[in-house]
Queue: 3 jobs
Job 1
Amino acid sequence: MGLKPEKLRGMSIVELEKEERDLREEIWKLRLQQTTGQLQDPRRVRGKRHDLARVLTVKREMEAGGSR
C-alpha cells in the first residue's frame, strides 16, 4: 500500500527528505533486481515511483508555504 498524502503532510521537511532518500534508494535497488531478472513483481517499481512523486509534491507544497 502506498503512502497517504495525509500522513506525509504531517511530517516535517527533514522527515520528507529522509523519506525521499529512502525511496530513491529502494527504487534503485528494485530496478537493479529488475535488470538482473530477480524481481518477482515489477509493479513494485511503479508503486515506489508514485510514492516518491507524492513525497516531492507535499515537500514542494510545504516549501511554498502551503498556498496554491
Job 2
Amino acid sequence: MGEQHIILYSSSECTRCKLVKQMLNHHNVKYEEVTDNKQLMIDMGFESVPVVEVDGKIIDEYGCILDWLRQNGWYSLWEDD
C-alpha cells in the first residue's frame, strides 16, 4: 500500500482544526493544508471545517475524522501511544 494523499481543509481560528493538525504533525503524517480559502471550501460544498480529503475521499464530520485518525494510529498526542 502506498502513501495516502491527504489534504486538510481548515481555518486558522478553528480549535478542532488545530487539534487534527497537531495529531498529524505529532505522528509525522505528510499532508497538504488548505487554510482560510473560504470560497474554495464553499464551492466544494463544505459547511464547516475541519475537512480531510484522503485519496479523493472526503471526511467532513469531526467524529469521522477522529475515527479515521484512530484507525491509522494517529489519534494520540502522547509519546507512549
Job 3
Amino acid sequence: MGRNLIMLGMAILIVLLITLIIIGFLSGISNPLPWISLVILAAVILAHNKIIGSRYLTWKDSYSVGIESIDNDHKKLIHLINNLQTAVDYKTDRQFEWQTLDEVVDYTVYHFTREEGLMEDNGYPGFMLHKAKHEEMIAKVNKFAEAYEKDESGAIESLLAYLKSWLIKHINGTDQEYSEFLISKGVK
C-alpha cells in the first residue's frame, strides 16, 4: 500500500506542476512561475528515476568470475530478478508475479546445477560447502515464497531484497573463491 500512495502522490505532484507550467506560460513567457515549475518538474522526474533505478541490479565487470558460461548465468539471473522487480513495481497481477518468480527459481536451480557440476567434475575442494550455501539459499527462497502464497504483507518485497543481496554477495564472495581454481583446470 505504501508504494501505491507514493506513486499517487508523484502523479498528483506531476499533474500539479504541469498545470502550473501551462497556466504560467499562458500569463506570459516572462512570468517566473512556469520556469520555476519546470525546474521543479525536472528535479522530481530525475529524483524519481534515480530512486526507481536503485531498485534494479546492474551487471558490473567486477562481478565476473572469469568463466564465460557462469558470468552469462549471473547476468541472466540479474535480468530475471529485475523482471520480478518490474512485476512488483508495476503491480502486475499475482499470476504474472508467480510466473516471474518461478523463472527466477528455475533458472537459479539450473545455474546451481551447472556451477556445482563444474566444481565436482574438476575436484574443487570447497564443493560441498558451496553446494550447502546453494541449498540454504533455495530453502530460504521457498520460505519467502510460502509467505507470499499466504499473502503476507511485504513478502514479495522481502524476497526481492533477499535475492538481490544474496546474489551479489554470493558472486563477489563464494563464487570468486572457486574462480581461480576452475580456470587453472582449464574451465573457460
